[in-house]
Amino acid sequence: MTPDVVEAGPVRLRPYRPDDAGDLVAGCADPVNLRFNPVLPQPYTLADARWWITEGAPAAWRGGGAAYAIVDADTDRPVGGAGLSQVVPGRGQAELGYWVAPQARRRGIATAATRALATAAFRAGLARLELLIQAENPASQRVALAAGFHPEGVRRSAGLGRDGSRYDLLAWVRLADDPPGPLPRPLPDLPDGRLTDTVVTLRRLAPADAEALHRLHTRPEVVATRVRPVPPTRADIDRRCAVAESDWLTGRSADFALCDAVTGTMVGGCALIYDEPATGQAMIGYSLLPEARGRGLATRAVRLLAGWAFDPVGLARLWAGTAPWNTASQRVLTRAGFHREGLMRARLPAPDPDTPRPDTLLWSRLPTDPTPTPHPLPG
């Protein structure tokens, strides 16, 4: 590519200039940008900005990549940066990256810049662009979706932290003949961020829910229904909460905090695992803390979840599995309109090698099944 100015609606992409140094420091010293761009020096100083403008960015251009300031179209002041690196000419491939200053976020700037840079890159002859994003960075994944990038898989240990540790990166890819976005999502966001019947509320699981979720999933009776039946570590739960939005965006699962609608307190959890996209089928699971049991809250949550799964998600079938001894869970499914289909023998792994593999009762609900008549549930 050549360092031409690229127009992008409310912003434009242009090469860096010496007087950009102050704005570059203000943006690159932001904790979020430092967290998700470990190649940036920390702390980021005026000397670092001047080096990038005079040496780093020109080197990117000489290497066949690109290094742009994203500037406000009216003021011409930088509000972010975008570029191409890791160029492989023989494959027509490059890695695209961007950052946005804190005061300019949530205005569609990263999406506009990414679309414009991708268009310019494809016109210059590239055939494939990659965005490599940490799973804990859902904001960047939303930009990828909006700019027409497809989730392709996980690059194991592809990221290198400042401390030398390695971590996985999600690969989002756009080809030259892909539409510019937005990409349709298998699992849309919740209306107004929640589902509620005024007694229970379901919202997306968040990092702040880790303490309650760990308490829930280390309960012996909950552990007994896990696959495998061993308690998770706190690190496991922290990770689950941290990547819940990413899993939702990529269409893998919708992980919910189940809350008391009046107090907002998290009293349990439920999840939809999109295990068979090709057949329009997903699995659900749910559990409650002891203090919330016996009030019909799980039934209410499953009804809410099923309604969302059929419309607007558009699933053709929901299924659930229960242990044969778990009659409480079976009552929940029956009241939520699920039908018992059969027994899956020795379906799950055993707690230890000397224990027989446990059976699972299979339950299902279809969108054409009659809506269950609401029982006078407690609560």
Automatic annotation (TrEMBL):
Biased composition (Low complexity): 358-368
Gene3D superfamilies per the UniProt record, alphabetical: 3.40.630.30
Chain ranges of the N-acetyltransferase domain: 11-176, 200-367
GO cellular component: cytoplasm
SUPFAM superfamilies per the UniProt record, alphabetical: Acyl-CoA N-acyltransferases (Nat) (SSF55729)
Gene Ontology MF: a single term: protein N-terminal-serine acetyltransferase activity
Disordered: annotated span: 344-379
Transport keyword on record: no
Keywords: Transferase
InterPro entries referenced in this protein's UniProt entry, alphabetically: Acyl_CoA_acyltransferase, GNAT_dom, Ribosomal_N-acetyltransferase
Kinase as UniProt keyword: no
Highest taxon of source: Bacteria
UniProt feature, compositional bias: Pro residues: 369-379
The protein's name in its UniProt record: Protein N-acetyltransferase, RimJ/RimL family
